[in-house]
Amino acid sequence: MKVDLHCHSIVSDGVLAPAQVAARAHANGVQMWALTDHDELGGLAEARAAAEGLGMRFVTGVEISVTWAGHTVHILGLNLDERNQAILQGLADIRIGRETRAREMAGRLEALGIPGGYEGALAYAANPALISRTHFARFMVAQGYCKNMQQVFDKYLGDGCPGNVPMQWSTLEQAVLWITDAGGVAVIAHPGRYDYTPTQFGALFEQFKDLGGAGIEVVTGSHSPAQYTEYAQVARHYGFLASCGSDFHSPQEGKLDLGAIPPLPSDLTPVWRHWA
To answer: What pTM was estimated for this model as a whole?
Structure first.
């Protein structure tokens, strides 16, 4: 079965509507699919209707922004009740700070010789409450300040770069609690993207597991093949369920299209084992 449990729509920082993402996943042979927009559940109704109309198994999802040890970590919530009031309120609280942060980033970029950043980024954000660094990056590429999205993050908007404004997101404890209280499974998204020491990674995995976190993303568009092997071993060591997802945002961005991810190693227990 072809499974893709990590992707984004225009409701957060993707470029396609939820129904369009569903259609692309189906066209690429995906049989079980989750929409996991950042800090927002608003696209799930459209995504579910489209997926079910196409005969795909739909899994509710979200990608929650967390601050842990001074860096941003993303926690996927899968197969959860999107009507749960605790997670709805928690996600709403996260979104409140995004506009203030965006205006501060625009000010920093203007000081670096890039004016009009806020309005420019907003033009790429269908949901203004979720304006993000990705929207700024699309504006900057379109205006010719950088050649591609990765260059924007490397030079201006990545952690520690002059245009970035650090954000205090939810805590790891809050994110895992919201997900589990909503009946979902908490999964660490693309761990290979985080700049932690081995000791810090060990502490993250231990705390996540102690809080009730159950899974880790092993195969993802954000990982290299060597990282597939590395995080498969992490899953074995900690007894985590294994997840996979393209982290699709746009047909023009990212390493992998929807459904283009390799299968999980056969000895790992997939996060969807009891969902069929």
So the answer is: 0.90
